[in-house]
Write a structure and sequence with these properties.
It is a single chain. The chain starts with a helix and ends in a 12-residue tail after the last strand. It is 20% helix and 30% strand. The strands form 2 sheets. Strands 1, 2, 3, 4, 9, 10, 11 and 12 form an 8-stranded antiparallel β-sheet that branches. A 4-stranded antiparallel β-sheet has the order 7-6-5-8, with no helix packed on it. It has one domain: Ribbon (Umud Fragment, subunit A), CATH 2.10.109. It contains 3 helices and 12 strands, in the order H-E-E-H-E-E-E-E-E-E-E-H-E-E-E.
Length: 189
């Protein structure tokens, strides 16, 4: 076996490894999870500017989005960015915002993560496949109060893990799994 055949087999192994690695990355990225960067202050204090998250894509192929899920979705036109917001209203519900409070079908929504009043006036009946989303930092959020409900097909995935920064600091809680919020109002009445 000469040096050319050894070099050829090494190059072949490297190419095979690279191709398999790219294939695995492609499948994971397209079908399972996708990275996103938090931009802006709309989800403070739960998510801060610059944090990196993974959204999982397969869950909503098997189940419906639920109230309290933090979702990544295509921003309404003309923006060509992804937004991250929390679902507060699901299909078939009536969402009302008045006097600083969010009501779902006439019942006040208790939001344990929210410390601000919710400004604006909304009186909206959600249709099939429509979701009402709000940022956790209501004063700094462009959300369904501005652009209306989003459709299920615009949702890219559910925020799943904050993976950067790893350690908590003055600006971030660090690496963590994003859990669902449990509400006193269920998804169905």
């Amino acid at each position: 076996m000469g040096p050319n055949s050894t070099l050829g087999s090494v190059v072949k192994e490297i190419l095979q490894t690279a191709l398999i690695s790219f294939g695995i990355f492609f499948v994971v990225y397209i079908f399972l999870v996708q990275p996103h960067r938090i931009k802006g202050e709309s989800m403070v204090p739960n998510f801060t500017d610059g944090e990196l998250i993974l959204s999982e894509k397969i869950g909503y192929k098997l189940d419906e989005p639920r109230r309290g899920d933090v979702v990544v979705f295509r921003a309404p036109a003309p923006a060509k960015v992804d937004f991250i917001k929390r679902i507060v209203g699901v299909p078939g519900e009536k969402v009302t915002i008045s006097n600083g409070e969010v009501h779902i079908n006439g019942q006040k929504l208790e939001e344990p993560y929210e410390i601000q009043i919710t400004e604006g006036r909304v009186d909206l009946q959600l249709g099939e496949n429509q979701y009402f989303v709000l940022g956790d930092n209501r004063r700094s959020s462009s959300d369904s109060r501005t652009f209306g409900p989003i459709y299920k097909n615009s949702i890219k995935g559910r925020a799943w893990i904050v993976y950067w920064p790893i350690f908590s600091n003055e600006n971030s809680k660090g690496k963590r799994v994003i859990s669902r919020i449990r509400y006193s109002i269920s998804n169905s009445f």
